[in-house]
């Protein structure tokens, strides 16, 4: 019998759910034993449910093809079969909040890709290399929910991971004003070019809600746990303003950023800080952790989506074109894989850290 933790994937038929299933195919710690989705998919095998809708590069893993899809709303049944769940459900935000909390109250840890609980004060929103200490707020969340094992943890918006890691590496130089514009792949909307042919050769200068997320979510990541308020208190600086644009790319979010610093770092200082930046996942050698979290690319035309999006299996961040700016101090270009590091892969890494720290067992 396998000693791996039994994992359920909520919303497993959608694009992010499929990415979870694909990433977990040969995971050394976790095994997908339960698939849950909307009532219209319930009762089918997973292969039947995603027939004609499978969007991953690799075929449906053999281990899950014949799993019978459960109704995601049947919380008790799903909860009885798993040690924890990944959530990628596609519902209205209030419905997501309700169902994720229902699983947590059923004593099932929930590691969510969704945005619904990112601003719930006692729910940690974590990039494992940057703010793992925010998991400490889980003890207060359990008190509120009345649980011993169940809780919710979330990962942040996919696009901020193309620039926030660089700013995190540079905190010693005190960045205080940032302009960050993101150029986001269509898979961030759960689409392929087959689903969204009007994106071929097109650019759409609007993505609902993205600019607010881009400006505010990094501040929550850089915040702190307040033991009196039982909450994450966001940082006040650096102030970020953002524009977010949809571009005709399948995978990979690119960012251009301009930064003002209170200190006066040199280019060498900034590059060294990027290349030396390590987090707890690297120290613990977690299965999904990139060996090199951030790479700096010296070529003047890098990073490029076609060449660099899969750096460290899509879990690493690529930074390039660091140069002096005439209005701000420095500017750079960043790139991250939006469905690996930015979505399912980032959530898997969160779950690995939660297991390593004893929150999931």
Automatic annotation (TrEMBL):
<feature type="active site" description="Proton acceptor">
    <location>
        <position position="253"/>
    </location>
</feature>
<protein>
    <submittedName>
        <fullName>Aspartate-semialdehyde dehydrogenase</fullName>
        <ecNumber>1.2.1.11</ecNumber>
    </submittedName>
</protein>
<dbReference type="GO" id="GO:0046983">
    <property type="term" value="F:protein dimerization activity"/>
</dbReference>
<keyword id="KW-0560">Oxidoreductase</keyword>
<feature type="domain" description="Semialdehyde dehydrogenase NAD-binding">
    <location>
        <begin position="6"/>
        <end position="138"/>
    </location>
</feature>
<dbReference type="InterPro" id="IPR012280">
    <property type="entry name" value="Semialdhyde_DH_dimer_dom"/>
</dbReference>
<dbReference type="Pfam" id="PF02774">
    <property type="entry name" value="Semialdhyde_dhC"/>
</dbReference>
<dbReference type="GO" id="GO:0004073">
    <property type="term" value="F:aspartate-semialdehyde dehydrogenase activity"/>
</dbReference>
<dbReference type="GO" id="GO:0009088">
    <property type="term" value="P:threonine biosynthetic process"/>
</dbReference>
<dbReference type="InterPro" id="IPR000534">
    <property type="entry name" value="Semialdehyde_DH_NAD-bd"/>
</dbReference>
<dbReference type="InterPro" id="IPR036291">
    <property type="entry name" value="NAD(P)-bd_dom_sf"/>
</dbReference>
<dbReference type="InterPro" id="IPR005676">
    <property type="entry name" value="Asp_semi-ald_DH_pep-lack"/>
</dbReference>
<dbReference type="Pfam" id="PF01118">
    <property type="entry name" value="Semialdhyde_dh"/>
</dbReference>
<dbReference type="InterPro" id="IPR051823">
    <property type="entry name" value="ASADH-related"/>
</dbReference>
<dbReference type="GO" id="GO:0009086">
    <property type="term" value="P:methionine biosynthetic process"/>
</dbReference>
<dbReference type="GO" id="GO:0051287">
    <property type="term" value="F:NAD binding"/>
</dbReference>
<keyword id="KW-0521">NADP</keyword>
<comment type="similarity">
    <text>Belongs to the aspartate-semialdehyde dehydrogenase family.</text>
</comment>
<dbReference type="GO" id="GO:0050661">
    <property type="term" value="F:NADP binding"/>
</dbReference>
<feature type="active site" description="Acyl-thioester intermediate">
    <location>
        <position position="158"/>
    </location>
</feature>
């Amino acid at each position: 019998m396998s000693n791996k933790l039994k994992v359920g994937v909520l919303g497993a038929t959608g694009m992010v759910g499929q990415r979870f299933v694909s990433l977990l195919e040969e995971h050394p710690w976790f095994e997908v034993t339960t698939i849950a989705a909307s009532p219209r998919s319930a009762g089918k095998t997973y292969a039947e449910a995603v027939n004609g809708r499978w969007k991953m590069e690799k075929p449906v893993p053999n281990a899950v093809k014949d799993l019978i899809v459960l109704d995601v709303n049947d919380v008790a049944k799903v909860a009885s079969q798993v040690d924890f769940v990944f959530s990628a459900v596609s519902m209205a935000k209030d419905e997501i909040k309700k169902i994720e909390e229902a699983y947590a109250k059923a004593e099932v840890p929930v590691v969510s890709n969704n945005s619904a609980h990112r601003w719930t004060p006692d729910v940690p929103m974590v990039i494992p290399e940057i703010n793992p200490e925010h998991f400490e707020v889980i003890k207060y969340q359990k008190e509120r929910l009345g649980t011993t094992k169940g809780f919710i943890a979330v990962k942040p918006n996919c696009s901020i991971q193309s620039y926030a890691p660089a700013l995190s590496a540079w905190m010693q130089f005190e960045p205080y004003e940032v302009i960050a514009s993101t150029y986001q792949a269509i898979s961030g909307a759960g689409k392929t070019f087959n689903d969204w042919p009007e994106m071929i050769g097109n650019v759409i200068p609007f993505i609902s809600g993205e600019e607010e997320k881009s400006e505010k979510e990094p501040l929550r990541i850089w915040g702190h746990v307040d033991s009196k308020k039982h909450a994450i208190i966001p940082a006040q600086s650096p102030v970020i303003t953002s524009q977010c644009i949809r571009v005709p790319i399948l995978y990979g979010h690119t960012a251009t950023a301009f930064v003002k610093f209170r200190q006066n770092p040199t280019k060498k200082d900034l590059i060294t800080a990027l290349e030396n930046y390590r987090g707890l996942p690297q120290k613990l050698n977690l299965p999904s952790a990139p060996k090199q979290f951030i790479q700096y690319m010296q070529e003047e035309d890098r990073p490029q989506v076609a060449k660099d999006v899969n750096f460290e299996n899509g879990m690493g961040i690529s930074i390039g074109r660091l140069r002096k700016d005439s209005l701000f101090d420095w500017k750079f270009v960043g790139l991250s894989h939006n469905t690996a590091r930015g979505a399912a892969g980032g959530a898997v890494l969160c779950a690995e850290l939660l297991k390593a720290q004893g929150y999931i067992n």
